[in-house]
Amino acid sequence: MGTTESSIVDSARARPGLLLVVLLGGLLLVDLAAKLAGFSILPIGEAISIDRLGSNLWNGVVIGLVIGLAGIGLSMTYSILSFANFSHGDLLSTGAFTGWGVAFLIAGFGDIPVRALLTVGDAGSATPGDIGAHILSTPVAILVGLLVAFAATAAVALALDRAFYKPMRDRDGISILIASIGAALIVRYVIQFVYGSDRRGVTAAIDASNLAFDPLGLSVNAHELTIVVAAIGLMLAMHFMLQRTKLGTAMRAMADNKDLALVTGIPAERVVTATWIIGGGLAGASGYLYVLLRGTIQFDFGWLLLLLIFAAVILGGIGSVYGAIAGGLVIGIVFTTSTVWIPSDFNQAAAFAVMITMLLLRPEGLFGGVSTA
């Protein structure tokens, strides 16, 4: 017993930062329990109902799944190509606009001009209600839009690789990183030129589209259920590919030791091509699902979301696919539940605070991603 107590004391002395985080986390949990009971211990925040807490947690899971799905491609790019791809956020925007353009075309074909549909409402006066894009009323349009978002963004990601990254493959990571910033600007302003710069609504509103779970105090939207099913399905498909296929084995080998993988005869260029196709496709799908969740679209939303995706990838362990998923869920839950104590304008700061804390206490992340110099 004395030995155990001594080891705990020694650990606390060796890592005072960890002890501080544990104490702060415990204090927040106690304060949360007090707020649920109707009073507060800390001088920030107000009392909260179980319904609101359940809603915050559910929203955090949904947002976290979208961020985690987007983070998979970013982690794959880093682990195999060894650079942080700053054009990744604009791939989300690419998938959103191309996918929703096709979804609009299917949902509103015959009643609204084709140009207005393909440009997601920028070239016409039709409202989301006129087009009627909703998972309950136009499920085929929503599903086909998701597939198009994946395919179109995979093609754009592969084109960016052939145009910018492949000629620079043997250069240092900083050069390719700067090239990715340039590629991001090109993609972003091409999207702005084609689709316009204004924010507009996308999804239609349908009565009785929510499911109530009274014991948990939850009201779950049909679109949220669609996002959860689609995101988990894509993640499971990714897991199967990595663990059960030759391509997945080759990808894991390239991520672990590129030189050894080349010596053993793994076709490096094929693996790189597959990385861009899969990573870009997942980015496009996550952008499409994010718009399904928010109900609005704007040309630069992917760039604005990129910092949260980076935070999730770093938190989970940069280079780790499973770390990106776990990091996305943590960031999403922190993003929504932090509003118990702070205004919603500052919830991104709370997410980044968690990321910085992880870097200080465990730089390799939750899943110990690829080590960097």
From TrEMBL:
Regions that span the bilayer: 57-79, 91-110, 140-160, 172-191, 225-242, 303-335, 341-361
CDD domains with a match to the protein in the record: TM_PBP1_LivH_like
GO cellular component entries: plasma membrane
Localization: Cell membrane
Keyword Transmembrane: yes
GO biological process, one term: L-isoleucine import across plasma membrane
GO molecular function, one term: L-leucine transmembrane transporter activity
Keywords, comma-separated and alphabetical: Amino-acid transport, Cell inner membrane, Cell membrane, Membrane, Transmembrane, Transmembrane helix, Transport
Topology versus the membrane: Multi-pass membrane protein
Highest taxon, organism lineage: Archaea
Family indicated by similarity: Belongs to the binding-protein-dependent transport system permease family. LivHM subfamily.
Protein name: Inner-membrane translocator
Species of provenance: Halorubrum lacusprofundi (strain ATCC 49239 / DSM 5036 / JCM 8891 / ACAM 34)
The organism's taxonomic lineage, starting at the top: Archaea, Methanobacteriati, Methanobacteriota, Stenosarchaea group, Halobacteria
